[in-house]
């Protein structure tokens, strides 16, 4: 096993994780307040206007940490300016159903008050009177700890009516989901919260103008909201200065590696840290006897990259230029013993099952890709099957489906074919010759009935 770096977390360098206890027990309100907790709420509500908070977050360069990487302050500024529009909502997307991703769980279970504080400040900036944490149903411990944190915050006067005597009212609720990947899409999340089927909505109108129950709504990720208190306390220049010099993105990011590595995990690291540093210095490298074959930068719905891409800075721009997406920045290492056809089939099977079925390209295209991959995996693929898979990828590209589920689903497939086409070709049956022997007849019958 390679030497693994030890991270020394401080408030100046690790705003998201410095309060985490060594025994992994949750930080409750007394300890949280002793570590400068709720100072951001105090500052925002008593010394700043909502517009000033929005401008501060926009200038900080904070981007959405759920995968899209859109400017948080810009998203906030899209909310209506009408002062008479009192019914507004803030939603926290804590569904985290992306395979291989577990960063939000760590933050919610260890630092529930940090998320609560971030939501109070954000709600104040958005002039939202009510918030919901839409939580993955399997996160039972996170649910229990968040509910306790909310009650503690109420008892301390940070939530409810007339918070800190400022006239601002805010209530926060935890809503557990029923286990659908599609709820990670913000409008599907809104439908589910309302008690409807979790289908994405047509946009426009966007949630900022018509979201929960037709009212202005902003949806942000757990990690995104957890950054807000530190930005309020320490300012824009400090936050921008956290990232490494080779990155244009501001702040830190929860990053990690899973797969057959020596020390799988998640760490708070500055943007610009290379994938090789994370893999070798923090994840301890590949296990003995294994080598890295490929890796996904940010969850199951991102394109595969190769060993030659490991020296890229982990940020939105550089990973995007390499032909993939940073996504959640929780990377998955693929070792040399894994067959890419089997791995891709497994991923596409998941995405096909999790499709809401609303639009035809996704509903029919993803199961079709699974059937072709199953045949190739068995060594029964037909000539032309790889080209058909490529055609499916093009047909499910961005802008050709109702939401982003299918475009994300085919990213691992299109990149696996791009880099490992020979493994797909190995599963294609060779055309039969003119000799009509028994084996040839059996092969023809197999091809006709393989579905």
TrEMBL record:
Its EC number is 7.1.1.-. Keywords: 4Fe-4S, Flavoprotein, FMN, Iron, Iron-sulfur, Metal-binding, NAD, Quinone, Translocase. The keyword Translocase applies. Residues 341-386 form the NADH-ubiquinone oxidoreductase 51kDa subunit iron-sulphur binding domain. Pfam families: Complex1_51K (PF01512), NADH_4Fe-4S (PF10589). It comes from the Bacteria. Composed of 13 different subunits. Subunits NuoCD, E, F, and G constitute the peripheral sector of the complex. NDH-1 shuttles electrons from NADH, via FMN and iron-sulfur (Fe-S) centers, to quinones in the respiratory chain. This is NADH-quinone oxidoreductase subunit F. It comes from Thorsellia anophelis DSM 18579.
